[in-house]
Structures are given as structure tokens and as C-alpha cells.
Amino acid sequence: MTAHANGRRRAPTIHDVAREAGVSRGTVSRFLNGGHHVSPAAGRAVQAAIRRTGYVVNRHARSLSTGRSDSVAFLLTEPQEKLFEDPNFNVLLRGCTENLARHDIPLLLMLAASDADRRRLTRYLTAGHVDGVLLVSSHSGDPVAAELRAAGMPLVACGKPMGLGARVSYVAADDRDGARELVRHLVDRGRRRIGMITGPLDLPGGTDRLAGYREVLTEAGLPYDTALVAEGDYGRASGERAACRLLRRAPNLDAVFVASDLMAQGVVNALHQYGRSVPGDIAVGGFDDSPTATAASPSRASAPRWSVCSSPRSPARTPRG
User: Fold this and answer.
1) Cα–Cα distances in angstroms (integers) from residue 166 to residues 149, 153, 256, in the given order
2) Superfamily of domain covering 72-173
3) pLDDT at position 209, please?
């Protein structure tokens, strides 16, 4: 830092870095913008000067000159409370933040729970305030992904956006195969009245996990009964409510495949309230492989037959039995 005439300390500038490194301002500028046409020796000198002076890039000034914001938005189109309840959102947020930090790129968290929120944030994002968007949880009929794509905004979705398919880049678990592995795990252990609590059926994860469940029942010669299926919203409370509905419809259940670990925790709570033992009376399998699975009672570590287990997010990993 450099002292001003009024006694306040001035932040170091690119000129200070150039003077300290013994190179031109243009060389420092080229180094900061990718290192093109900068010799290795000059690059090392600039790096050392940045450390000694404590120089930090003025992102506002850079944005004016490059037309880029050097920031990325993490857009969650879910109610705010889900960010804090569902551990998967926190895992995604932490992973994105850590990886962008390696490139000195800040991540802006944005929550769009209502149509008004979505319209407001879409206007903001497409106005050039960020360089890209990580879109999390795009329900069927949600126009955000299509609008961002139409505006030319670089976009990656978490989960396959319904209705857009290959037109939007996305990263997703193999939901169908993960569901197949877990339901097959239950069938192989002699369970025959296997219910399912799905996720939202306007999300690909909800429909694909249900499809995997149905396929394994068919392969095992077991009937698919809609009375054994209840829809949830991936939250703990919805799992508890759905379990109560299933028990009223089919009191002779001997297993439940639950489309998220958080809902599975609610299912176990409901079964205990109904006086059903886990895994003695009813086996419970969740999906996510999240820390929530180990917080269940019995946990994966204490269940003698691993009946409270978690299906993996990756098809390469197999539920333990």
C-alpha cells in the first residue's frame, strides 16, 4: 500500500507492479490477461512484484475494458429454505466455489423461488452482469434455462433440463441406473412388497428414478402397483408424509425405495411412529450417498444388513449389502 497526501493508504496499482518488476505497464497488463507475449522471466518478475506490492486486480476496471464480469452465478430455482435443508445443494455450492476460487472467479448465489424472482434475475443475468450461469433444479415448465440460452448466456445445468435435452449443457447422475441398483439390492434380499417415494415428477431425477424402480420390479416378476408409489419433494417432511400415505394404503409393505436420503430420514421417523422396526419390518433405501444417510437411525454403519442404505449418485458405485 502507498500513502496518500491526506494520510490514507492507497491501493497498489498496475503501475506500482510494473515499477517493482522492472517491466512496462503493457507487460503487466498482458500477464494479467493470460500471459500472451510475456517471456517466462518477465512473468516470474511480475508474479513476485504482485506478491510484494499486494496488488489486487480491479475487476470493475477490467470489466470496462474487456466487457467481461469475471464472475459466475449459481442460480437455484427452489424455495430458500431448501438451500439450508438439502445437503446436496450445499455440496454443489461448495464444490463450485472451491473450483472457481482456483481461477480467482467469484460465485454469486441467487435464489429464484417465485415467477417474479425468475423474471427479475433473468433480466439481471442477461444484462451482462455475469459471464455464465450454473443452473440448479430446473422444473418442467420453468422458462429460465430456455430464456438464458436464447439470450446467448453460457449455461450449465445441474440435472437434465426437461424439454431442452442436448440443447443445454448439463451434468447429471445416472438416476435410472442408480435406482435400479438399489431396488435390485432390496429384491435380492427377499423383499417383495417394495414401495417407492419419488422425487418431484416434473424433474428428470424424479421420473428416471421411478423408471428404474419399475424396470427392476418387472424383471423380478413383481407387479407394479400405483398404491405403492407416493410422490415427495426431496424434503424430510415430505418423506414422512408420503410414508404415512403408503402405510395406510399398503400396511404389509416390507421395503421402501426413497428417491433422496433426506426423504428417507423422514420415512424412518414415520415408521418408528407407526411402531415398525427398520430393518426388521421394513427396509429403507435412500438415494444420494449424502451425509444424511449416516445420521439415520439405524445408520448405514450400525444396520446389521445395511438395510438403511444409500444408492450412489454414480453408477460405478454399488450399494453395499
Assistant:
1) 12, 16, 33
2) Response regulator (3.40.50.2300)
3) 95
